[in-house]
Amino acid sequence: MSPVPEASVTSLGAKSSGSRRLSRELVLRALYQWQLNDSSLAVLVAQAEAADIHGRANVTHFEALLAGVLKHALELDAALAPMLDREVEALSPIEHGVLLLGGYELIHQPDVPYRVVLNEAVDLAKRYGGTDGHKYINGVLDKLAQVVRQVEVGAGRSAR
Description:
0% strand, mainly alpha
C-alpha cells in the first residue's frame, strides 16, 4: 500500500452537514478497500458514494478524513508501531483501518477531543472488528493519546 497523494476530491456542493460518525464508518470501509486493493483516493470516494449510508454522512468530513489518512499513512504507522504488541503488517485490515483513522484524528485534528476519538474508534471496532478487538484498539489509541495529547489526557485524568 502506497500513500496516496493529496488531491481535491470534494464534490461541488458536497454535503457538509450530516453525521460525522457515519463519515468515519465510510472512511473505515474505504481504508479496508485500500488495504486490499491499493485503490486510489478517487476510486475510494466513488465507491463510498454508492454506500447505503453515504446520503446521511457528512461527505466533506469523510473526504477530508480519508484524504488525510491516506496522505499520512506511513507517518501514522510509524507513530502507532511503538504502541502495538505486533508488527503493523500483522494487524487485521479492520484493526489497521481503525487505528489509522483514530491515529490521524489524534495527531492531525486537535479540535476533536481525544475521548471522542477513542469512543468513535471503539464503536467502529465493536461493529466491524473481531471479538474483543475494541479493547485492543482502545489500549493502543489511549497510549498514543498519552504521547500526542499529553496536556489534554493529563487534564482529563486529573479532573476525575
